[in-house]
Predict the structure.
Amino acid sequence: MNKAQLVEAIADKLGGRQQAADAVDAVLDAIVRATVAGDRVSVTGFGSFEKVDRPARYARNPQTGERVRVKKTSVPRFRAGQGFKDLVSGTKKLPKGGEVSVKKAPKGSLTGGASATVKKAAAKKATTAKKAAAKTTAAKKVTAKKSTPTAKKAAVKSTPTAKKATATAKKATTAKKTTATAKKTTAAAKKTAPAAKKVTAATKAPAKKTATRKATAKKTTARKQ
């Protein structure tokens, strides 16, 4: 039975072929979307659809027998429910008229129960963490971009100030050197002053003796006359 035959089989029960086609499309679309998203679609008594991850492995080409590496992949898997298995195996008989009875699914079975709920929560947390990390990274990049021009401007502004400070320091150093030289000159002058005084005193002493001698000679000459 293909899809068209399935639609024809339920058309009378749903009031027309179009309604049946829409119903089949809606059911299949819901199952496919949920399975692709990683959810487990379970219908009690019928079976469950789920996504299974297969790791990378080695297989053999049936035609050549050559060993081939198969990449990691995901495949859909259908597991028949116990009621479906019993009907197929003949343990239970199909009803002659009406629809095959399917027991009402317990709460959570359509989404895979507790394990599927835990998987969903983990997936949501991982997605949230990834988004938060991406936002943080983007914010850091924007902050870095904004801070770079500011740092450049600050460096440009600080350069003239640094030059002025260097020139002031040079001037202060030159002033200190000049002051030290002046102090040394003053000290040398102070040391030279006593020597000059001694020389002056020594010069004055012979002059006084000469004057005394001249005065004595004059007196002697006057007495002789």
In short: Confidence is low (pLDDT under 50) at residues 109-115. The CA atoms of residues 147 and 201 lie 80 Å apart. The first strand starts at residue 41 and ends at 43. The radius of gyration is 57 Å.
